[in-house]
């Protein structure tokens, strides 16, 4: 399954460092990005002050690529934390991995060098006494100079560099380092990432050894560097060397935009060969009072020979600055020679050459001349450096190179890597808004927007409304012709029915009306469904303009406001269905249980304040995190959420349904999906509700005689379930896996006098104890009821390893024509399970 999510790190009260909890995370799962499954609906819930609004604001900030000081956590001791928002793509299906790797292979890694920034740079490299002694011992050298000559020969070859963590087994003790690699000599220099106080401008090498390239950690990610290194053993960096902190910073930034070892960017490690995965991220952070945006997408560099007007101006401004600097140092040039000419003559020659090319666009000519000027200044530096401050020379060659992301997501999935994320603020329209007098036309928001779409001057329309009838009729025909484009796009986007809608204009004496027809019959907005009216508003606000499309995200805050309960349900259905058809993901922040569907709880995400949890793993936790797997039992105290849980239960029609509680959202998704296609006309419809696991270990055990422990957590879970069921006035039935945790729950409830009469626990083994065939001895979890081919087809074989159970099972639940896509073996096992559950009698009947 290929997925995307958004990660909050130290963003206001979301994802605060060191506050992660079991069942909660700083990751908002957005679902699948596979072509047939992308889009749909997510419901974002949260109690008062839990941070639901911060979640929406974070999504908007990511879309706008903009963060500010107000996004820094407002907790004591956290003032220096860096707010980050990360859009993450995880690719696990082999066909997409292969497609992406083919795209990446088109980019030669060796071409991803830092030539444009460091070609003419020379950095000092200082070696520690220990590294020198090791070299002498290994090479049997007698002097430091022999080591220097040996290393310098290696450093003069083609080099590659990488910033990474060392290889200590204890992760807590790992430290960052820079590896400078020579592939030619199979040699690596290990350098410090820190600036040393004694020689801040040099690289500090603490170890230099011969090592095969394939043995060097992450050598495949090393970047080719075309700078030079000058070895020195004294603490003072030579004058002719550049500041190595530039190189250290560049490599650190490159490290932070990768997926292999950054603290911010953890890779998705495959659990098995089959579970190989790729991970790409967009990272938005607020550092040093500015917003920084970077991605881990592969890059492509393009060399430009010719400048555009913007680049040309930068070049001209730089030369003007250097000519001004010359005025400050020209007196120090008197009597000095450079390259067989006086420095004054050399400078005048450079100026003369510049005037000849000043308005050309050929960048290499400017670069060559600029380097001449730089050498002249360097030649005189010892004369003026103590007396005159000269602006630094910039890297003019960098203007030749532009680096672009290669959007492998677009190539593999047909959606852009960075989606458009829009907060939709509805401007509700009524039939009254679709009419206007000529005098008030310019004040009509609807007609102003409509004529902008139609590319018509509103003043011309006002004049026509005062004209003769024949002229108004001619204008009508013209506007109707222009409306054909709107008709075509509206019908294409409103893809939920086969109805055909047409729009036209009617111009009367000083009056204009926008008219609608459905299948050639006149209609009015007030007579249409809530879903249609919402779409109509959405379409004319921004859908027509093409502002959003497949893969994009639309945020809606409390869309239920002013809507009746039936209208809320109608709107929810429209958003979900339209999102699935169009590939657009709608995320609604809501307080209303009527905007939720009890059989689609996989769509629910909850923002939860950590200090409201019933139990916490750490003392005084800060901020809020996100629950991606909904549980009917809730998570601690929250007045708003408790109202929702209560309302969800009260919305169930028990004359039409039978509730079965299951361990988690995956079981709920799978069984609710099959409930829709299970054939048993005389049975109540089964609804499966998740309780977020049993607690305790779920390891499979070969023997039934192993001692089972009914933990305090499991006991509390059972008591909470009984309390919730009593509120609904039902006897709860809990279906559990045939693993250690499931067996412990069943035995523990049956051994507790206060529990066994109020809760029935059934294991899968109980149901299939008398079954025939292999299933009898191989049933351990719901996914084991599927044939091997179906487990692979729907992703059940690897989803738990990849921590994608929610998304994989959600995709399964939304699969069209599911019955036809299941094997006979899977349907036989599921039918047996459902027949058993349908036949159960509640204890209180």
From TrEMBL:
Coiled coil: 451-478
Domain ATPase AAA-type core positions: 481-597
Keyword match Coiled coil: yes
Keywords: Coiled coil
GO molecular function, one term: ATP binding
Protein name from the UniProt record: ATPase AAA-type core domain-containing protein
Species for this entry: Helicobacter bilis WiWa
